[in-house]
Amino acid sequence: MRRACRAEVLLLVLLLSACAATTSGTADDATTSTRVKIALLNDPRVGGLRLDVKTFQGVVTLSGTVKSKTDEQAAIAAARTIQGVRDVKSELKVEGSQDTRASAVQ
To answer: How far apart are CA 9 and CA 20, in angstroms?
Structure first.
């Protein structure tokens, strides 16, 4: 099932990329979010986690729950590798952590 989901996401990315290339030549926020989601799925540390990705003007916001601070850092690092990402903000919550405030990661 996970492979089928990846194939569907990849197809969506290709379609969005083609549309973006023909209209402006730059990656838009929807394309950036999709690319980040694919990067997270392909990352062995965070691929199995359910994380939400939102992008506004190139700034990616990650939300959801991770198992550890290390997983949070891995998700942030994976998002930063994507072309078009200007910054990454984390609203990720660490399981068992009492700290529920949103933190901006630079």
So the answer is: 16
Secondary structure of residue 27 in the 3-state scheme: coil
Torsion of CA 88, 93, 30, 34, to 10 degrees: 100
CATH of the domain at 50: 3.30.1340.30
Number of domains, the chain: 1
Average pLDDT of the segment spanning 29-46: 93
Q: What is the DSSP letter of 100?
A: -
Q: Give residue 18's domain range.
A: 2-105
**Could you tell me whether strands 103-105 and 87-94 are parallel, antiparallel, or unpaired per DSSP bridges?**
antiparallel
**Report field, pTM of the whole predicted structure over 0.85:** no
Rounded Cα distance between 94 and 77, Å, is 16
